[in-house]
Amino acid sequence: MKKPAITEQPIHSILADRWSSRAYDPTQFVSQELLLSLMEAARWSPSCMGDQPWQFIVFNKKNATPWTQALNCLSIGNQNWAMDASILILACAHQNFSNNEKTNRWGQYDTGAASENISLQATSLGLVAHQMGGFDVEKTRQLFQIPSQYDLMSFIAIGYPLAIEKVNAEALAKEKEARKRKPLREIFYTNQWGEQSL
Hints:
By secondary structure, the protein is α+β, with helices and mostly antiparallel strands. The protein has helices spanning 13-17, 32-43, 64-71, 76-82, 107-124, 137-143, 169-175, 184-187, and strands at 54-60, 87-94, 128-132, 150-159. Belongs to the nitroreductase family. InterPro entries: Nitroreductase, Nitroreductase-like.
């Protein structure tokens, strides 16, 4: 199912087509080749001083035990649909720069950019990617032995979209909900805070 954004101005189709579906085909698995492509997209994301403060942990459904452990870290609401995804990726942001250990206040920002690169690359490959903030951070940290200097930012569920005729009625209603965004004039100011000119 596609649900392109209804935009105020033209944007590239890869941006318009990216959306956070919750309907995954549980019978299709993301190949190693496509997974590496997603990882490469993250690697080439911009970051402050090129520091690349992100670390990602990839959980492949083909390796059932760690994948299930990762799934169980999600909120129940997210588990209900993410269970059909082929891949779960945990995005972590280093709190400090690697070259001098000073606080990197852009680390989370940069990790978000790398995660978006994964999502856009997934869209370009015909996959679905959905980023989730609903998970138990401390359980995840302890279970996967993540060092304290990393902030756990999100899980990303990735897989193939489920054919629309196979989506149950309740899920289909959610999938068909209109995509909403604030108008440009509410999120962009000109020259100073609060100055709208669009």
